[in-house]
Records
---
Amino acid sequence: MHSAHHASSQKQHRRHFSSIWSIGGFCAIVLLVLYIFYPGDDMITLLKNIREADPVTEKYLSNLIRTYPNNLEFRILLAQQELALGQINQLKKTLYSLPDNLPSHIALEKRWLEYEILRLKTYEYKPDTPERLAGEKAMIKEVNYFLDKPLTLHELKTLATDSEALGLSDLAVKYDNIIETRHPNQSEQWYVSASRRAIMVSNYYSSAKNYFNAANHAREIAQKRSYFLEGVKALEASGDAKVALKIADENIGGLYFDIPSLESMAQLALRANETAIADRYITRAMHLYKQQHDEANEN
C-alpha cells in the first residue's frame, strides 16, 4: 500500500517536473527562434503588434526580460500585458523596476500606465466621496498633461471620454479634433459622439463636420438623412444662415437624390435669402418626384 502510494507520488512529481520543463523548454525555443528571425528592434516591433493580452504572452515577455534585463521596451510591453490581464499589483512592481532616467518615449509609456492605474483606482470609489474627488482631481491634471503628447488612437479616445466625464468638454473636443486629424475615417458612432460633444461647447462647425462624416458612413438612407440634417441644424445654430447653406451645400453628397433632404435644403436657402439656390433644390426635388411617379405608373 505504501509502495503504491510512493509510486503514485513519484509519477505526479515527474509529471509536474515535466510540465515545468516543457513550459520552460518551449519558451527557450521560442526565444531562440524569435531572436534568429527577429533580432533587436524587429522583435520589439513584432511584440508591439500583439494586440490581445493573454497569460502565454505575459509569460513569454517575463522570460525575455530575464534574457534581456536592460531592455526597457520589453518591460513596458510586459506592463501593458499585466494591465490588460488585470494584474495591477504586478504592474506596479514592473513600473517600479524601471530606472529614473528614461528615454522620453519610455517615460511617456510609463506615465500612461500610471494613469491607467489612477483611473481604475478612482472609479472604484462612489461619486462625491473624498477618495473619488481626489482621484478625479489627479485625473484632471493628467488629461491636460497628455494633450500635446504622441499617443495611440486608443489612448486619445480614452482621454476624450475621460475629459467629458470630468466636466472638461472643451478638452474632450480638442482630443476629438486630434483624433480626426491623426486618425481619419473613424466609425459612424464615433463621429456621432464627437458631434454631440462639440455642440455642447457651441463648436457648431466641428459638430456639423462630424455629423456629415457620420452620414457618409451610414448605410441606410434614412440614417444618412438624419445625420445630415443634424449637421445642418448645428450650422444654423452658429447664427449665419448663408455660411450654413454654403457648407451644407458642399456636403449633401448622395442625398442630392433624396427628396426630403432637398426640401430641407430649399427651406434653408430661403432662410438665407438665397432664392436662386432654393429654386435649384426645389426644381431638383420636383424632378425626382416626377421620376418616381412615372416609374410607379409604369409598374
Note: Residues 202-293 form a domain with the Serine Threonine Protein Phosphatase 5, Tetratricopeptide repeat fold (CATH 1.25.40).
---
Amino acid sequence: MVLSPPIFPQAIRGRITTAQIAEANGIIVEIPVNSSFSEGDLIRLQFNARIYERFISEEDGQPVIFLVADVFSHLGNNTAYYTVVEPSGRETRSLPAKVFISITLEADDDVVNTH
C-alpha cells in the first residue's frame, strides 16, 4: 500500500513564499490522517535531505504536523515524503510531494537555477 503524499497547507498554487515561511517560523508539512496509523507508529518525514521523526502517541484522528526549519529549504523545488514504521518494523512509504519556494507568488518574478 502506498500512502497519500504529505500536504503543504501554506502553499498557494504549489508555491510557498519566503515571507510565509518567516511568518510561520518554518514550512508546515501535514501528514494526512490514515486509518492504518496506530499508536506507537513512527512517522519519518524526509524533507529534501533532512529527516524528522515523531511517534503517534494516541489515535485521535488528527493529521500529524511537522514544522521544517527554513534553513533546510531552498528557492526552487523542494521534495517531501514520509514513511510509517510500525512497532513490528514494517515500513510503508508515501508518494512524494513537491513545493516551490519563491520570493513572491508570481512565477515571472523568480529567477532560479534549479540545476
Note: Residues 18-24 form the longest helix (7 residues).
---
Amino acid sequence: MIPGLALQILFVFIGFLFLILTFSSLAKRRINEAICLIWGITSLVIILAGILLRPVGWNKYISVTGLVLAVIILFGVLFVLFTLSVIVSEHMRKSNEMAIQISLLKGELDEQQKEIEELKEKISDRKAETIPDDSSK
C-alpha cells in the first residue's frame, strides 16, 4: 500500500512540476501557445492519473526498486520530450522572424530596383539630349 501511495504522490508532484514548467516557459516566450496547450493537457492527465488510479496490487508484480526505476525513466523521457518541444518552438519562432525579415528585405530590394530603373531612364534621357543630331548639320 505504501509504494502505491508514494507513486500517486509522485505522479501528482510530477504533473504539477510539468505544469509550472510549461507556464513558466510560456511566460519567458520559450514555447509557443500550441505546444504549451499540449503540455498543459499532458500535465493535467498525469495529475489526474495520480489522483484517480489506485495502484493497490502492484506490489505483487513489480518491486519498489523497479517502480522507482520506471518512474525515473518516465520522468527522464518526459523531460527530454519537453526540452525537444522547447527547441522546436524556438526554431519555429526564429523561422517566422526570418520570414518577416526576408519579406521586408524583398520590399526594400524592389524599391531600390525601381530607383535604379528611374535613374537609368534619367541618364539615358540626358545622354539623348546632349548628343547632337546628325540631321541638323
Note: DSSP finds three helices and no strands in the chain.
---
Amino acid sequence: MIKILDIKNNYVIDRAHEADCSSNCLVPCAVLNLCRMESGFLAKSLVKKAGSISIEFNEI
C-alpha cells in the first residue's frame, strides 16, 4: 500500500520514469487515482459522480 501512496518511493512513478514518460504524461496520474480508488482512499461514488475526464485537441 505504501508503494502507491509514498511520494519519494512510489512504484507507479518509478515505472513511469523507467518507461521514459514525459513530465506531462497523464497515464501515471490516472493509474495513481485508480490505485487510490481501489484501495479505498478515493470513494467510488465520488468518482462516478464526477464523471469522465477527457482532453480534446481541436484544430484551429
Note: The mean pLDDT is 84.
